[in-house]
Structures are given as structure tokens and as C-alpha cells.
């Protein structure tokens, strides 16, 4: 080939390119069909018993009895043959009836005369004799969607999210009068609060992921959703800063803090609503008291970036609503349409948002000085420790 000449690829039409792109997918689909039609593992398994795994998705306590939703989390089909309630065989109706294949759900209606305040145990027995148990510690009727319960859960969200955050915002005049060292301490306290919230949210997310059906890969779902949330909040923060003047940077940071806390509080609302929906009234009441004390410190985290700017009451109130109002929505969803999968996703979004806010605040306060030197200063170390200690003590009330 002489200099100045180049090898040229044969031209291909767009239609042909699409066909070439789809060809591997079509062949993969045919391969999956072959695997489904001809079970190559059958000769190896022989007469080995099937692998059965049922997961209780939701147990509702209705006036007419129990309504149980189960999921086949195992690779082999499962047939529910019998139901025991408190060690007595009981009639049940299954919808849809018959065999449950992998990831198939079924609803079981069990007309059992449960007693409010008592404990009950439900045992499912498959056709092969494998048993799966679910315990109801304290029986209480599952809330049904109604204006009364919407109002009750909204009031709970106000008590847990909106009012405590609003009380925390009242520290704004004090923060405005702090000097440099005092402000360093308060901002470090804020970072400590948020880091504790991040750890707390991650722990709740991992626990919820572990309780999910194994087929949904809960841990991977949580980590992936948290990473995506971090990137989205990072992009959103950059977009806000690109549109706002330099003087508004403090407000951008405060808004991001409020959004991160709001997403975390949404997860708290889910936990409270789900506790009442699953008949755990005592746990629900404990969560209300604990979260109320816990969330008062979150208002401080919102106003800390605003220490050097004037903040109208209306804008502070808006930040308080952004941080606190999601608790109401979370309580509604947790109480009426709770889903283990979406619970993990929302907790992950909260974790990712809080992680981004911590990074954002650290960038802002350490601008112009090394982060290591900033962290070594006395007020900063004291603030970080105080933030962790404060959240730990109030968190103990949640259990």
C-alpha cells in the first residue's frame, strides 16, 4: 500500500447495522429457549428433592382473617398444600391457585378469628412437606386506605418530620453570631450528623435488602441505587450552581442538605407506616418518639451553611418542608402500599443523597486549605465527635 492511501471499510446500510446488532440477542433468545425445553441438569439431579423457598411478602390482618402474600424465591415450582394457624390446620383460598413457579406470587386468604393484641403463628406446608413460618407478635388490624388513616399518617409525619426539623431551624440566629472557630465547630457538627445519618441509612438498607427475596439481589440493588442517586444529586447540585450567582452558593448547599435529609426522612416514614401496616403497633409508637428526637438536630444541619447570609423566614420554611414533608409521603406509602423492593430503593436513594451532601459541605468548608489540616483542628474534631454522639444518643431511643 503506497503512502497516502488508506484501507476503506465496506459501506453498510443502517438497516444492516441494526440487523447485525440484533443478531446476538436473537441467538441468545434461541439459546434460552433450548435450555428451557431440554433440561440438561435433569440427569444429574436424578431423584433429588426440589429446592423450595417461599418468602412472606406481606401479612395483612383483616376483620375476616389473615391475607398473606407469598413469593416463590426458589428455582423449583412450589405447591402450597396446607396452612396451620397456631398449630391448627385451617382452610385457605389461594389466588391464583395451583403451582407457583419461580418469582410467582400468590395471595392466601385465611378466615381465622384472630384476637387483637395476641400473638399468632402462620405455617405454610408445601406438597413435599417443607414448612415456612411467619410470626405475628402483636395482632392489630391492618390500616385500610381511608381519609381517617390518611389524616392520621399525615399527622404522624408532621410530628416526626416537619415539626422537629422546624424546631432545629430556630438555631439559625445563634449560628449567625458565631465567629470563625464557632462556625467551624457547627459545620463539623453538621458533617458528623450527616455521616451518622449515612451509616444509619446504610444499615437500614442492608437489613431491608437481607430480608428481601434472594432473587431480587437486595445488596446489589441497594448499592447500585445509592451510587446512581449520588451521581444524580451531584449533577443536580452542579446544575443549580451553574444557574445561581456566587452569592447564592450557600443556599444551593443548604438546599442540597435539605433534599438529602428529606430523602432520608422519606425512609423513616416508610418504616413507621410499614410497622403499623404489619401489625407492629408498639414498634411504630417507639419509632415515632425516637425519630422525633432524632430529627430535631437535622434543622441545624440545614441552617449551618447559611451562617454568613441573611435568610428570610419564607426561604427557611421552604427548606424545612423539603426536609420534613417527605416523612408524610413515606408514612402513606409504607402504611398502604408497602413493598420490600421499593423500600430498599428509597433507602438507597437517601444514602446516596446524604453521601453527596457530605462531600459537598466538605468541599465548601475546606476550600483554600488542605482537608487534613482542616480536620485536625480542635473545633472540627470536637464538632465531628459531638455530631456522632448526639445522633447516637437520640438514635438509641429508636432501638
List the defining traits of the structure above:
alpha+beta, Immunoglobulin-like, four-stranded antiparallel β-sheet, 13 helices
Explain what you see.
With 399 residues, the chain is an alpha+beta fold. It folds into two domains: 54-136, Immunoglobulin-like (Sandwich); 147-395, no CATH class. Helix content is 60%, strand content 12%. It contains 13 helices and eight strands. It has helices at residues 14-37, 42-45, 147-169, 172-176, 180-211, 218-243, 249-277, 281-303, 313-324, 326-336, 340-365, 371-376, 378-395, and strands at 54-62, 65-72, 80-85, 88-90, 93-95, 105-110, 120-126, 131-136. The strands form two sheets. It has a four-stranded antiparallel sheet, with no helix packed on it. A four-stranded antiparallel sheet has the order 4-3-7-8, with no helix packed on it. The protein is globular, with a radius of gyration of 27 Å.
Short structural description:
With 399 residues, the chain is α+β, with helices and mostly antiparallel strands. The chain has helices spanning 14-37, 42-45, 147-169, 172-176, 180-211, 218-243, 249-277, 281-303, 313-324, 326-336, 340-365, 371-376, 378-395, and strands at 54-62, 65-72, 80-85, 88-90, 93-95, 105-110, 120-126, 131-136.
Number of strands: 8
Biggest beta sheet summary: 4 strands, antiparallel
Strand order of the largest sheet: 1-2-6-5
| SSE string, helices as H and strands as E | HHEEEEEEEEHHHHHHHHHHH
- Structure annotation, total helices: 13
Strand content: 5-15%
Helix fraction, binned, reads 55-70%
Structural class: alpha+beta
Mean pLDDT: 80
**Could you list the spans in which at least 5 consecutive residues all have pLDDT below 50?**
none
Euclidean distance between termini CA atoms: 77 Å
